[in-house]
């Protein structure tokens, strides 16, 4: 079982390390947003009952202890509204990837941007990464906008990189270096 970890973002918004106590609420959030999520996320198709989600949470727990993944649920106004995490952490090369999803009814409130900022800080300051990647389907403009707002640099298009609903999607590869993030944070402070 994963130890409790909580990252406070605002009085009504925090990240909680993914664990089995969230299983039913997380499953209901996925089910209620299935049509919205299945457009860009290949794993949604397989989440048809509690069992595959429970197995996924077990894998999150294993990956956390192996040091390759840190997975959080996003809790807004005391309800699970999505997930965000650091994935594919490579300690030797000090890099990883960030991924997220959010239920449709809370989009446009700045939740993902606020969560990304905190998680990027965490990745560079606490985990010790030097590079973060973010991939988004070419047609997923909302996710691409988040990457660009955060200051991720587009490095290229990965053709036919992911199958979603039986169709290959091209993915835009974005990256953020620690030095870029630190400069952006300094610029943000000086702009105030």
What's the short version?
With 192 residues, the protein is α+β, with helices and mostly antiparallel strands. The chain has one domain: Gcn5-related N-acetyltransferase (GNAT) (Aminopeptidase). The protein has six helices and eight strands.
Overall description:
The chain has a single domain, classed as Gcn5-related N-acetyltransferase (GNAT) (Aminopeptidase). A hairpin with a 2-residue loop joins strand 3 and strand 4. With 192 residues, the chain is an alpha+beta fold. It contains 6 helices and 8 strands. Helices cover 38% and strands 35% of the residues. GO terms for molecular function: protein N-terminal-serine acetyltransferase activity; protein-N-terminal-alanine acetyltransferase activity. This is N-acetyltransferase.
Task: Kindly report the average pLDDT value.
Answer: 94
Catalogue the unreliable spans: none
**Known CATH architecture:** 3-Layer(aba) Sandwich
Count of DSSP helices?
6
Order of helices and strands: EEHHHEEEHEHEEH
Beta-strand content bin: 25-35%
Structural class designation: alpha+beta
Shape: globular
Q: Main β-sheet, in a few words? A: 8 strands, mixed
Give the tally of structural domains: 1
- Across the major sheet, the strand order is 1-2-3-4-5-6-8-7
Give the strand tally.
8
Radius of gyration, whole Å: 16 Å
Give the oligomeric state of the chains in this entry, treating copies of one chain as homo and distinct chains as hetero.
single chain
How far is the first residue's CA from the last residue's CA? 42 Å
What is the name of the CATH class? Alpha Beta
The CATH topology comes to: Aminopeptidase
Query: Can you give the helix content as a percent range?
Result: 25-40%
- The CATH H-level superfamily is Gcn5-related N-acetyltransferase (GNAT)
């Amino acid at each position: 079982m994963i130890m409790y970890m909580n990252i406070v973002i605002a009085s009504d918004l925090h990240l909680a390390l993914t664990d089995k106590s969230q299983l039913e609420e997380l499953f209901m959030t996925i089910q209620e947003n299935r049509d919205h999520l299945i457009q860009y996320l290949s794993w949604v198709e397989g989440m048809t009952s509690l069992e595959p989600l429970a197995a996924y949470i077990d894998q999150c727990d294993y990956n956390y202890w192996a040091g390759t993944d840190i997975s959080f649920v996003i809790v807004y106004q005391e309800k699970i509204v999505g997930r965000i995490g650091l994935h594919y952490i490579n300690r030797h090369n000090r890099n990883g990837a960030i991924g997220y999803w959010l239920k449709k009814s809370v989009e446009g409130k700045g939740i993902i941007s606020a969560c990304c900022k905190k998680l990027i800080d965490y990745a560079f300051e606490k985990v010790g990464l030097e590079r973060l990647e973010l991939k988004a389907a070419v047609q997923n403009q909302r996710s691409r906008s988040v990457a660009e707002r955060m200051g991720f640099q587009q490095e290229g298009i990965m053709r036919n990189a992911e199958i979603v609903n039986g169709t290959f999607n091209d993915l835009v590869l974005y990256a953020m270096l620690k030095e870029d993030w630190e400069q952006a944070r300094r610029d943000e402070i000086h702009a105030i």
